[in-house]
Description:
The chain has helices at residues 49-52, 54-67, 78-94, 128-136, 157-169, 191-194, 202-214, 217-223, 246-249, 268-282, 307-318, 334-341, 349-364, 374-391, 401-412, 414-425, and strands at residues 2-10, 15-22, 37-40, 71-77, 105-111, 119-123, 143-148, 178-183, 225-231, 253-254, 257-262. It has 426 residues and is α/β, with parallel strands linked by helices. Helix 11 (307-318) runs parallel beside helix 13 (349-364) and helix 13 (349-364) packs across helix 14 (374-391).
Amino acid sequence: MIYLNNIKFENGGRRIVYDYKYDSNLGKYFNKSEQFYVEYDIDVQSIPSSIAAIPFLANFAPISWFVGCSISIEEADQDFIDALESIKNVFIAEYPHIGLNQSKICFKRQVKNNYAANNSGTLFSGGVDAYSTYFSHVAETPDLITIKGADVDITNSTIWERIKLLNEHEVLLSGNQKLYITSNLRTFYTHNVDLLLKGINWWSKVQHGLALTALLAPLSAIRGYSTIYIASSYTENADFFWGSSPQIDNKVKWGNTKIVHDGYQLRRQDKVDLIVKATEALNKSIILRVCYALSESNQRVNCSKCEKCYRTILGLILSGANPNDYGFDTSAHVYDEIETMFKNGFSSEGVKYFWGELLHKMTNSNAFYYFADKNSEQTTLLKIKQLFQNNINKDIKKKSRWDVFKYKLQNSFPTLFKAYLKFRQT
């Protein structure tokens, strides 16, 4: 059993700290030095405890399903409890063994919450998915909510402040309320939770859709959200399970608020096309935040050298846009770098899926942006197209026992591993 003993409001009502305990046999799953918390930039202490409990339940319930334990709380939101049960069944369909586990939410009171809800909000990372959702619902003037502790490491205050400045200074976003949340939602548990999955990657495959949307529950009661949008990552063509999908996100509900998994009908390249058309129509440029590799040597948000940057850069090129107008620092040399990165195939099903979309775009369109020499760059693009065609049907290498051992070793000695990484980068 996991017991939520008390919910405390600190820091002028902006920080919610969850006082919980668990039976000793569950100790290996939780970080003893960290109590789970969520901090907002507005006072939320007037909300009912059943709403305040939602971020806790969203993050702990999936662990309870896989481990086989129950959760005890005083008061629960009726709609959210029903949503958790429906979502659990989605996970059982993918991971049948958890259906054999004994896990339930035990509560003393179940409450049907009711509050005025005339506004909307959207999770806003500043990336391709987020901006696609923004432009799709711009007429609603939704609140834009950015979370520290999800994509941005909770200890990285430098990049966090830079991201907040980018949000505040982005002219296109001047009419939207920007709100910020900080939570240790990725560090309150240990690496043993990741090991509950054969392929590791708990955050992506299980946690993130439910966890991120539920962090907004306290805000929704204060700001009056009828709808909260979470941008899609994939479409129905993705043949692998992901922790954020219409089957999961669209079931999430509490009080007068519902979650909408947005843009599922759009491929990533469709979203890039949408963003380029929208910004060109407005005669504005935006900074897409694709990666967060800020360092002393790189004062830009995007490193322009990683897989995610490359896929966005190429997507913009195929949309006829200059990537340097969207927050990247690149040139025609990017083609050689892409070729080098993928000469041996793709590293995961997700990566293969996205580059397969780019292959589809290259196959069905001859238009592209060129940096200097159109003919030579077109020839290089054709080489990359052939490379992708050769690699797209190759099997993805599964994680081996050695990979799992390395993961355990890295997480058993995190300080030593970080020192090693710093040495290697130097």
